[in-house]
Batch of 3 targets.
Target 1
Amino acid sequence: MSVHDLYVAAAYAAATVGIVGLIVWVLADQRARRREIAQLEASGVRRRSDRNAGSRA
Amino acid sequence: MSETTAQPRRWLDLANPTRFVALAGRCIPWLAGLSAAVLAVGLWLSFASPEDYQQGTTVRIMYIHVPFAWLSMLCYTIMAAAALGTLVWRHPLADVSLKAAAPIGAVFTGLALVTGSIWGKPMWGTWWVWDARLTSVFVLFLMYLGIIALSRAIEDQSRAARATAVITLVGFINIPIIKFSVDWWNTLHQPASVFRLDGPTIDASMLWPLMVMAVGFTLLFLTLHIAAMRTEIFRRRVAAMRRIEARRVETRSP
């Protein structure tokens, strides 16, 4: 393995860490918000639009 | 309903966050699968392509560095369009789009800087120079961080949206500066070699992996942006529900 191969490996490793970290953050953020909505709904909190949709049904 | 009224109606439907969330749910798995497949082909092409006669194997860094750099500017351009949507048309999803795109743009810009720096050491003999292209991209990175901070610093959502939109539009001046910095000033960075009036100056054996990787990362960016927009809509729903909960507690207390 040449020294230049190490630079290529370092660049791809940095890109992998950045992209995988971004994907994990986006998914974790989404999961956390869904959990919050589920908890609020479980405690009986409904948005006005949800209540209207419910009464129309 | 006539054809002419049905067409704008479909666009208006997309402005409805609930419909956007439903549409995003259908699009995201397909977009994610497609971006993974295109990136896999791009990676295979990148490592199967020949070495450059001058750069040697380090040319492979270009297959990730260039798409990151393009996307750093594309993302900011999308944010500037969203800022116009907030200020001019008051589109309900415009601020959601801007706020969701900023962290993704910051990561792509950061990666363009890091991979460029790693390429620069063996090719230029230095990790960094304060030349026009590198400095203007670094300013873009700082602008992303500033926009992220500003959009989260103001509690009133509509005031935060307006302030962020104005700053984003002012900062858009940096995009043509980045693009033309290599033509306007004497820099270490090479001039454009793909999007040129006289055609690309890169050999097809290296242009193909570059273009496939660029398409793959663009699809990944779209996937992440739509997913982050959906999360931002959920975040606003949580805030609205917490306000309802707080009012309910207030009315109950004597």
Target 2
Amino acid sequence: MALDDIYKEVILDHYKNPRNKREVPGAELTCSKNNPLCGDEITVFVHEVDGKLVDVGFLGQGCSISQSSASMMTEAVADTSRNEAGEMIGRIRAMMAGEVEPDEETFGELVALKGVVKYPVRIKCAVLPWDVLQEALAGKGEAEGSAAH
Amino acid sequence: MAVTEQRSAGLDVARLRADFPILERTVNGRPLVYLDSAATSQKPRQVIDAEADFYANHNANAHRGLYLLAEEATELYEAARAKLARFIGAPAPETIVFTRGTTESTNLVAYAWARRFLTEGDEILLTDMEHHSNIVPWQLAARDTGITLRYIPLTDDGLLDLSDLGSLLTERTRLLAVTGMSNSLGTLPPLRQLTEAAHAVGALVLVDGAQLVPHVPVDVTALDVDFLTISGHKMLGPTASGGLYGKAEHLEAMDAFLGGGHMIEEVFHEHSTWNAVPYKFEAGTMNIAQEVGLGAAIDYLEAAGMDAVRAHEEEITAYAIGRLTEAGARVFGPTDTSIRGGAVSFWYRDVHPHDLATILNEEGVAIRAGHHCNQLVMRRYGVPATARASFYVYNTNDEVDALVEALAKASDVFDA
């Protein structure tokens, strides 16, 4: 294992310069979740127009993996439909479970998270924002602590 | 990293290290630098052998059979109890109840004492530096009884803020439950002063000894505490070993805890009578081999000398606090090693503790990152988590250097 497997430049860039780290005005869908085991916190805001996620933002604090994953997620699912976002969530889960070898065409920058698979204790950090998005889309709202161990 | 000859304050660390098989292994091609003894300690060969010897040569249920093996098992189990009693200055072996550790011990008191004797209007006083295992059992008891929990706050330096103790500790207080040593801040609260103050208002005192007993010489008789919880696996012993010390009069008065075999005297259709203390609290087959292993751990610590253990840890803690601070880390808790132990929490520049732990692991350095079951402490100091290095008899200043060198790697990765 080498550290640059997990701490790829794109991850460090999203961590230090997070995209869409803001509340989204008029967001109809929002969900908060934390992982009490490690203190990572993510809130996702989604503004949906005609079935499209036109604006996605997040707030939170935590390690570089959880925060960069959230930042990349907001870009990856922007302007997609609910179904497309749902498929993306499924693909990320499959990648983190080691079931799918991600390619850049489908995954874009998110391929950078692949290295996290080699660090089993950190997988939940990468997946946390996607869990929150899924629950936001399902209209579950506050799911604080539901990632508790 | 070569382990240099380190003779620290009367402890021959290099010789002790040779007793710990796990210290011979490598992690990611580097020697293991184990700095997480506050979570669980490593085990010397003597403890591993004692547990294996029990299974290989003496295994039988204790206090049951009428044959030689059963006698041997019982003798070894009771010898471990006597060792533990002596180790903490308890007046008699019968004042020690074997449990799975501090969590079970605290729950035992919460069930068999608090639920039995406390009612609405009564208060239990805790502190903001308690481990969750010394908070949640009392919350559960409070839910059942209507008692109120109150908390002693902390100062900015990681000490108990006793300035308002008079209004927190009152005639309504029935129990003060306080840690002997904070597992995140390292703080050693003034147990004598607190015990005197509690007794002055008629409250009992329970000391959470999870971090205290492995690292500091303890004398429950001199301290005059009512209960002390003990974790075996943090003091070189096997997991699931440990116990509860209680003053005889409390253990006698308390309700039974778990019902089952051996804790009874006689069983009738509608009721039962209880076995004598401490067996009243030891239902079912106990962790016999593990408590025998704990006995071997106590032999080991006594041979090393607890004064020497404490002196060694003061020395390495002072060294670690100095080096970490120099490297740009914010260290939590007191810096004066005469009032703290060797659990050193820190925040390193802008690197999140989890990222830090991952990077340190690549260098073979094992530290803890998280809230350490101390969410009240994290909230008090405004951090979601901390990194924590904690030390024991086998740790060396060279290992502190390895930690600091690994921090530099983290700093490179994160440009922090």
Target 3
Amino acid sequence: MMAEEMLELDEDTQKDKYLTFFIKGEVYGIDIRLVTEIIGIQPVTEVPEVPEYVKGIINLRGRIIPVMDMRLRFKKDFLAYTDRTCVIVIEACNMSLGLIVDGVAEVLTIPEAEIVPPPELKAAQNKYIRGIGKTGSAVTLLLDCEKLLNEKDESVLLNL
Amino acid sequence: MDPMMEMFVFETNQNLEQLEQILIQSEKNGVFSAEEINDIFRIMHTIKGSAAMMVVNEVAALAHAMEDIFFYLRENKPKQVDCSSLVDIILNAADFIKKEINKLDAGEKADGIANQLIALTKKALADLKKANEGEKTENAAEKGTPPVTESVEKVAEKPLAASEKIDMEETINVFQANLLYQDDCEMENIRAYTALNNLKDYIGEEYHYPENILEDDQSVAVIRQQGFNICFTTSMDYAAVSELLNKTIFLKELRLQQLPDVKEWSYWPKETASVPVVEKQLTDAVPEAKNAKKAEVKESNHQSMISVNVGKLDVLMDLVGELVIAEAMVTQNPDIQGLELENFNKAARQLKKISGELQDGVMAIRMVPLTGTFQKMNRIVRDMSQKLNKRVELHLVGEETEVDKNVIEHISDPLMHLIRNSIDHGIELPEERKKAGKSAAGNIILEAKNAGSEVVINIIDDGKGFNREKILQKARENHLIYKNEAELTDREIYSFVFAPGFSTNDKVTEFSGRGVGMDVVMKNINAVGGNILASSETGKGCVITLKIPLTLAIITGMNIKVGKARYTIPIVSIRESFKPLAGDIIVDPDGNEMVMVRGQCHPLIRLYDLYHIDTKVKTVTEGIMVMVKTEKMTIGLFADELIGQQQIVVKPIPAFIKHISATRGITGCTLLGDGNISLILDPVGIVNRI
């Protein structure tokens, strides 16, 4: 009983909270409930025959987790990893995935009312944007992690 | 699923398995021995009791009907028993129960209707009685056959039937009392025993539940929940009894009821009455099922067997795997490389020894003998030979061979398929066999043996064997032949039977011939890293050999380096490795490279080429050639250098990677001693790419 209430409360405190991070100057946000941890960049083991943006797998205390370079995923130019480069480990759809980002900013509360759907553009990358959150004058692009995990990038697969 | 249901499903399945064994055995002998009757009776009784408790009424009713038959057999020892038809009925009923249990296991409702089966079973009992009436009338009348019409309530009666003769003297009052103790009084069983002792002097016959107050550990819980139930006869009146019982210390509530007659005892509350039988037997069932041999054995094994959730073992296995890696990280730590550390090395060796033993121990826990899987085949052989009018004898050899639990799960279905195929396609009808100068009954030998880190399972039959021509013809029709027919070896031809949709059986039977099957068998066996071989001699029979790794979790691997990447090749598939000379490499006009080893040519695969890895070592003389053997062929893998041999814990490739690409040739990954990840190469996958 108590535990359930606690859990509910816990869920509640995480609701509408987003972890924001940078990719090439742009601020993106993901639902904090999906984030399991944030780590610095680790030595990555390359896996053959995967799309370029999947950098490989890392060893996270015995767990083996694939990592994806978000810059490459969004077809931006590659930036060499530095001390500021972070891996955001998310867990969704029963899969774990590390997102390599330029840096992590902060945790923001963006109420549902402040989120507007993305404009209907033909640009492919909008597929992964769930909405655009407004906080004061700044905007945050909110990622749709499930799509990120599930959608196969056909163009890359065809090349193989 | 709630734990009670889980327990019920588990126990009932075990009981059914045991039942099948006994039935098939007795059918072979053509007679039910007293011990077998008792065993079957007990199994039915257990199933009935637990099914009634779990409110699976159809199962309970059916089990009850079957129990009646064996009750009759046990009590009246009739002379004329049609063993085989009885076995048929019981097996059908067992199948029904199994189906219902599987439904429950899948979280569905057990909604099957057993009326027909129950009617059949009852008819069998009636027939049995009729057949034996002549000689046994007196005996039967004396003892009284068990009431057939009564259903679950009969459980309630059981304990009473066992109680002593009632001595009918003077005026006798019958009481039923339920003593409920205070919540925090503790040691309820001792208190109940005291209460019973206090009564002893005043009462005649008594029956109480739980039966074994002091001996049975569970009695405390039962008394705490349901109270302590006593039924007794006494010359005292209600008031006196009430007064006496109310003296009991820590008593919270007394429910005393006077009954008009001893017979009223049968109104003993159902739920409490069904519990004792069930609980008692549930606790017994595990060891019994495992050693279905002698009563003495069961007794001694009672305490030494526990059943553990496989999930827990998996966790333990993972932890040991981590430990092995962590140990390597410590002992091979770069910080201490090259240092003279005598004491450290001593301690490290000790640690290595212990962790090695721990690993062996955990592996041993997961090892399960093939006995259960093998014995299941008895049933298939029996059913099929009856339906197909063939006579088949199954011989089991080496069934005590142990393999990892995970592996067993994967080979049970393939084995079943192969046995079916052998009976359906292999073994001929008795007349045909006689004509061919063989014994009327066909033989199938199911044999298991250890061979290094593999288990070899042979399925040998003395049937008509593969029809080479027919297979070739079918292979032609299905466009499976990829090279000159004259060059095909027997082994290659026989391997066509494992291709999808391949069946040479002209007509589709209930059991096989639809062409699904062998490829599924192949797939299942490949999934556990095993292999299938078929060989045959027309007219004499065929041998199908399964080679299966003992375990999937920890393997010995050879680590190799290509550029910055590390790969691991399972040591079982490595034949040799050597530094090639420039002259060993041959290039054909298409640019395919081959490596010559002792006069034999094998395809050469450069790993850096295959996986697009950046490396400096591109000249063959600078790197190392690892010859890897698969069933199909031997190939040479070219790598930069060997790192060394290591026990590795196989971890699956992350789901996301599997999802996003269909990488072939890589089966998993593992952690190296230095914390780096190495990818495990799958030679079969690589061969399939070329």
